[in-house]
Amino acid sequence: MAVWAERKLIEKIKKVSTATADGLLSSIGDDCCEIKASGSLLISTDSLVDSIHFDRNFHPPHLLGRKSIAVNLSDIAAMGGRPRFVLLSLCLPENLEWEWIVAWLDGALEILREYDCVLIGGDTVKARELVFTVTVLGEPDSPDIIYRSGASEGDTIWVSGSLGSAGAGLGLLSGEQIQPGFLKSQYEPLLKAHLNPVPRISLGMELAKSGMVSSMQDISDGLATDLAHICTASGVSAIIDFNLLPHHPELQTVADLLETTVEDLILRAGEDYQLLFTVKKGREGELCDFLQAKKQEITRIGEIRSGKGVFLQKKDGVEEITFQGYEH
After folding, report:
1. Which domains does the chain have, with CATH numbers?
2. What is the maximal distance between C-alpha atoms in the chain?
3. C-beta atoms surrounding 146 within 10 Å
4. Collapsing DSSP states into helix, strand and coil, what is residue 268?
5. Could you tell me if 108 and 13 are in contact, meaning their C-beta atoms sit under 8 angstroms apart?
6. Helix-, strand-, coil-residue percentages of the chain, each rounded to 5
7. Which residues contact 314 (CB under 8 A, 6 or more apart)?
């Protein structure tokens, strides 16, 4: 006998998803939802599979619910958009505890409220594996949508926040050599970066409004791979300076504990969900002045050049790092 029932779950979702929004004509309860759009829509979808994209042994359901939504909101942020509506498709094992499902749902709805985004429908099915598929619909917050394909020679490369934190947090959480009490000290920001990432919605919209950003995407598969996506789409190459890459002060200590390197965590671990973007040549100072009042943290890390590939400048020379990030 199933621990949860589909009809009971749908009624639970309908009960807690009572939000309304401009443009929402009909929501949960019909075969389709209906929305009214005045312009273009930004649409992204992503699936998270148990034991591949998350580990229930250490990922609390409430935080996993938040993260399941956050990774899709981050895609909207990467194009300078504002998230509006979400569809959820849930593949749930029959023996999954009701309390676990409710905690996951509470986390998902919590982050949706934080970003004024509304759950408008989806699907639930019994399955062998636990899988969440999230589809988010957003709207451009500026006339100029930012694509990956706009970078040009002479543009500079920037990132938001700190890099490598989520990979370090995952390593700590899954590492048998690390004691639980030890994790609740100076490493808390690294753990949160993995368990509860924050989509950079506000920054993405500000960058789009500025008119100074030529290309952008979020960092989900590691800086080396995600910058390669921009370079490939734009038909350019990039060089970044290892000494300029921003990271948490404890990243080196954690890298030593995990028997890896800061370079690997920053370039290849992924799931930071910071924004990676290029700034039009000569507009850097203007952009910094524009963002100063917004209190948004950004760091210049390199430059766009002609040619192909992504290259890393270190003390002992230059090496190619094209598409060296995480792959599922």
Report:
1. 6-140 (3.30.1330.10), 148-320 (3.90.650.10)
2. 65
3. 24
4. helix
5. no
6. 35, 25, 40
7. 242
Rounded distance between C-alpha atoms, residue 304 and residue 240, angstroms: 9
Specify the higher pLDDT residue, 24 or 232: 232
Nearest Cα to Cα of residue 234 among 261, 219, 214:
214
Identity at 134, one-letter amino acid code:
V
pLDDT band at residue 1 using 50, 70 and 90 as cut-offs: very low
The answer to whether the CB of 246 falls within 8 A of the CB of 163 is: yes
Residues whose CB falls within 8 Å of the CB of residue 236, separated by 6 or more in sequence, listed in order: 151, 152, 153, 304, 305, 306, 307, 308
Tokens 């948004």 found at = 296
Give CA–CA dist 66/88, Å, rounded. 13
Give the separation between CA 109 and CA 118, rounded to whole angstroms.
8
pTM: 0.91
